[in-house]
Amino acid sequence: MKLGIVIFPSKKLQDLTNSYRKRYDPHYSLVPPHITLKSPFDAEESDLKQLTGQLWDIAKKYKPFNFHVSKVKSFHPVNNVIYFKVDPNDTLTALNQDLHTEEVTGGEPKYAFVPHLTVAQDLSNLEHDDVYNSLTMLSIDHEETVDRFHLLYQLENGSWTVYDTFLLGKEQ
């Protein structure tokens, strides 16, 4: 089964992100706005009990923390993804690293960790330039507290749903 680990932001930030995603992100209906902590990976259903135990162990190591969204950025020219930049912080980086150990989820990430909320993807170069230039005029200065992360699994129709939620600083 295909799994992923994410942070869902507040409704206010999800609403702002979705106001653009519904126009510019073909994955809008498949998963709510999120910060990816661990990109999709494969696991056997029989491994879920052990995996969730490991995720609880990681979650209890961390206290709730703040993150800040500061501006619109793009991964262009690598790919035409436009996103709200989540400023890196020590806790977010450490949490991401803990979720990428061989014992937990199969090892190192494919890409460097760039915390973000995707607002547009799968755009042509012309669309990307037009949307990006428009969105960079936005003034974004949003801070909020994270107190949990989620293990998601992918359904047959390609959408994602929560398998379990892990509260930071709490026992299972």
TrEMBL record:
It comes from Bacillus aerolatus. The keyword Hydrolase applies. A motif (HXTX 1) lies at residues 34-37. Keywords: Hydrolase. Belongs to the 2H phosphoesterase superfamily. YjcG family. The active site is at 34 (proton donor), 116 (proton acceptor). Signal peptide: none annotated. This is Putative phosphoesterase F9802_15785. Its EC number is 3.1.-.-. GO terms for molecular function: hydrolase activity, acting on ester bonds. The keyword Hydrolase applies. It holds the Pfam family 2_5_RNA_ligase2. A motif (HXTX 2) lies at residues 116-119.
